Structures are given as C-alpha cells and as structure tokens.
Amino acid sequence: MEVFANLWMGFGVAFTLQNLFYAFVGCILGTLIGVLPGIGPVATIAMLLPITFNLNPLSALIMLAGIYYGAQYGGSTTAILVNIPGESSSVVTCLDGYQMARQGRAGPALAIAALGSFFAGCVATLIIAVAAPPLAEVALKFGPSEYFSLMVFGLIAATVLAHGSLIKAIAMVVWGLLFGIIGTDVNSGVLRFTFDIPELSDGIGFVIVAMGMFGATEIIMNLEQGEHREIFATKVKNLWLTMEDFKAAWPAVLRGTALGSCLGILPGGGALLASFGAYTVEKKVSKNPERFGKGAIQGVAGPESANNAGAQTSFIPMLTLGIPGNAVMALMIGALMIQGIAPGPQVMNEKPQLFWGLIASMWIGNLMLVVLNLPLIGMWVKLLTVPYRYLFPSILVFMAIGVYSLSNNPFDVLIMAVFGILGYVCAKLECEPAPMILGFILGPLMEENLRRAMLLSRGDPTVFFTKPISAAFMIASLILLVVVALPAIRKKREEAFAEETK
Amino acid sequence: MKIKSPKDFWSGLMFVASGLFFAIWAITHYQMGTAVRMGPAYFPTMLGGLMVVLGLMILASGLAMQGPKVPPFRFRPLLMISLGLVLYGYLMKPLGLVGATAALVYVGALGGHEFRWKEVTILYVILILFSWLVFVKGLSLPFPLWPAAYS
C-alpha cells in the first residue's frame, strides 16, 4: 500500500523534535485563541506568517495547521462552559453543550467534543492521504482554461456557502480580485493602480489585507459592544462518558465526521459550514428532536466532529490544486509562497516530505489536543477571566509588529489600518470580508490563466465550455447560482444561517 | 424615491463607485489590448464593469425592498485603533520599539471602554519586554529598541 508507505515517511519527518515542538506550539496557540473570543485563526495565522519566514517550510506549515484545528478544539470548550463560541464554528455547540453544562454534565460534553474531534481528525487525515494523490494527478493535466473555470467555480461556491446576501458576496469577490491585481502587471510590466506610490508596485501583501479586515476590524467591532461575560461552570468534575452517553453519541460522531469531511472539501466550506450542517442532520435523524437545545449529547457530538473533519479536509483543495477554499487556506498558500514554494499539484511530487509530513503532523496534533484539552480545561477557562481591555492592546501590538516586520515599512501598517476601516464599513453594511480575501488571493492567478487560455484559443471565449473539464466546472457554477437564486432554496439557506445569528 | 433598505442602498453605492473608479482609471491609463492579447486594462475593466452591474442590482433592491437600518458608527474605537496602528508604523524608525509601542498601547487603549493609567502602563511595560524578548532577541528582527537620537 503506497498510502501507508507515504504516511510512514510522513510520520518519520513529523516525529523530529523540532517538528513536534512546532506542532505543540501551534496546538497551544490554536487552543488559546480558540478559547479567547474576539481573535480567530485567520488573524492569528496572519500575525505569525512573517515569523514563519525564519522556519523551514514543513515546521511553518505544521505550526499554522495546528493553530487552525487547535482553534476548533478551544472554541468548543468555551461554547460548552460559558455559552460563548470562541470560534464561529462552535456557535451550534453552544445550543446543547451549554445546556449540558447547566445540567451538571459539562464533563461528558467536553469529553465527547474532544473525543469526537479526535476521531474525526483521524478519519480526515486518512481521507486526505487517500484522496489527495489521485486528485493532484488529475490536476497536473489542467491547462489554463481548466484552472480559470476551477477558480470561477471555487469563488462562486465560496459565495454561495457564505452567509448573507449572495450578490453582495459576489461583489466582494470582484472587489477582492481588483485589489489583488494592484501592482506590476506581469505581462506588460505596467504599474496598475499604484498612483505613483513605490510601495504599491509589488502589490498589497494579502497578510496586510487579512490582518486589517479580520484583526483590526474585529477589535474595533468588539470595542463597540460592551464587555460582559459570566462564567458558569468553573469546576468540571467527572470527564468520563457513561455507557449511555457513548451509545447515544457514537452514531452522531460518525455522521458528523462523514458530513464534515465532504463539506470541508468544497470551496468556501471548512469548519463553519460543517458544524451547522451536522447539527441540522442530527436534529432530522433523531427520534426525539425536541431534546435538541435542551442538552442532547448528539447536538454536541455531531457538530464538533464535523467541524474538525471539515477543518482538515479543507486542506485537500489547497494541497492538490493550490486553490484556497477559505481564508485560512489562503493564508497557508501565502505561507508556502513566503518559503518560495509555488502551490499546486506539483508540490506533492516535488516535496513529498512536506506534503506527507504535514498530513502526519495533523494526526499527531490531534492527539496532542486531546491530551492538552481534557486535563487542562480549568486553565483554559481561567483565561476567559482576562478582561478584554488587557487583551486588545496586546493583540494590536502583535499585529503591528507582524505587519511592520514584513518589510520594515510603515506604509504596510498604514495599509492595514485602511483595510481595518474598510472592514468596519463592510461589517456595518453586512458585506462579508471572507469572499473578498479569496478574490484577493486569486486575482493575479485568474487573470494570468484567463490570458493564457484566450491566447491559446485565439480569442475564442467558448473554450471554457468546449473543453470537458472546464465545461463541467462552468456548468456546476451556473447550477449553483441558479439553485441558490431559486426562492425556495434561498429561504432554506436563510433559515440555516439564521440559527447562527440568534 | 425612498431608501427602503439603507444597508443595501449604501453598499450598492459603494460597489458602483468603486467599480466605476477601477474601470475608468484602467481605460484612461492603460492599454486595452484585444481578447487574444489582453492589455493591462482588459481584466480590470471587465471586473469593474461587473462590479458596477452587481452594485446597481444591490442598490435597486435597496430601493425596492424593506430592510434593516445601518447601525450607527462609533468613531472613537475606529479612530483610536487606526491612529494607534499608523503611529506605530511611522514612529518605529525615529522613536524605536519603546516609543512606537507606547503610542500604540496608549492611543489604542483610549479606544476602549475605560482607560486607567496604571493598568495601561503595566500592560505597556509587559508588552515592551515581551516584544523585545521574543521579536528582537528571539527572532532577531531588526527593530531599534530606543529612539534613534540615543543610539
């Protein structure tokens, strides 16, 4: 079995002292920011990106990946104990997890969240190992027209799955694409939209944009709202599941893992969508759905497994196609590019150690997280008592250092502030920043592939519909758009996302 | 004409204005080229046009359908956080890490709900020590610690 041989090699590279250390650092940091509301994985990874320049590529990716799935674990802890979702993907965990805590069953809730996540993580790791190589094989045959259509599909799927208005999300994508092409045009050498500012000739670093729109905006929005938190269960006793709990929960874990793995692969998917999907499914298949929202263990087990599975399988399009499915993956691609590695299907063949090492480290990281989370829960909860007025200046300092250190240029920090303000305006107008970030990172790639495809087809735009793979992506995008625009489905979609805003 | 859904109306306007800007700037400053050999203006003009169309659709729905109001802007956090960040960037070279961090922490903290001199100062000292240990000593980033005049 080649897969196992490869995984074995991956474990070999991941089990060095240095890589274990960075996996550990990533998991700790991830749990930390998962527990703390008001700072998410996107802002954290963006902050740490400049620092990863000093690490070797594998260690850098291992640490950043650890932050992403660590945040899923940490987020569920606060959701269960304090009814505050530390991460957006833990919003549904609040519904039943907090109820369980109020009934004195915080222990089992935390245990099933951690064990479910661990199980999902193991399965998702295997799925990546099995599914990624053939996908990369196919992707190697892609020409410019296929790539362009794939990106169109990815961006459309991302907007469909984003919440809020569909047209606004598409407009944000287009805006992102436009911001992305600021700088020197690779084909003609012309400086576009640089307004004679020398710093803009290399384009705007997307770390700066991400940090502005996710980090700075988040802080400003948090400061607008008051500071009120109460901690319900400070003491967690009895982390063991009863036989009854176990029987009730394991089918939910299986379903959550399956659903999460599928949704994670879709562009725009990932942890958030997976957890919402899983909760809905659990409620549907349950014999007594009225128990949901009143402390049903399935309502914790399903979504928690799903969000971890989704977080991991969302690496698949990034690793095999070089296309980010969500903002975190966009940052991972940025991390690769900082290291001078062009993301895409060739990474697996050219750098097998990087690829398989990262996959193996996910499994190791998941194990670390179970060990970290269950016994240390008291410590994580204590962290919640740190008031936000200490936290936000600290976050600001880290953001500023991170951006400034990119090129020791104050202009970068200024641009971050500008995007922070833009993000604030967008938040007030209910325009989601995530689609914009995706557009931003894909902008230059899309233009490049469009140009090449049109050059090869001698200016015939039908090429996107006559090549079979490309046509399939285009038709899938159209179907997605039509389906979502249909009134009946639109209503369903709004309902699904309405649960989140409650 | 009455604005029925201000959130849609204003965001539509924002998209239209920004799309127009990109498209017009591209057309007037860069070469269009042809579909076979696209010039630097081609892609941005297409995108700008698409954005105007999308913006108009959002704007129209803002006039046609009832929707929520835009929540009020609170300028204090917005201004203080942005100002703090910008100050940090531009004070780093003349005033060093010590001065830049001071500007960011104190100005940023003014954007919070309450401002206590003692707390902010303690926080400032901790953050300076941390930045110095981790970033200057640990990761050897080339930040000046003290103002340029002293070193």
Give structural notes:
The complex is a heterodimer of chains A (502) and B (151). Chain A has 502 residues and is mainly α. Chain A is 75% helix and 1% strand. Chain A has helices at 2-14, 17-35, 41-52, 57-82, 91-102, 106-140, 144-161, 166-180, 206-224, 243-265, 271-285, 298-313, 315-321, 327-338, 346-350, 352-373, 377-383, 388-407, 410-428, 433-456, 463-466, 468-485, 487-501; strands spanning 183-184, 191-192. In chain A, strands 1-2 form a two-stranded antiparallel sheet. The N and C termini of chain A lie far apart (48 Å). In chain B, helix 1 runs antiparallel to helix 2 and helix 3 (75-110) packs across helix 4 (117-138). By secondary structure, chain B is an all-alpha fold. In chain B, 70% of the residues lie in helices and 0% in strands. Chain B is flat. The chains are: A mainly alpha (502), B mainly alpha (151). Chains A and B meet through helix 8, helix 9, helix 18, helix 19 and helix 20 of A and helix 1, helix 2, helix 3 and helix 4 of B.
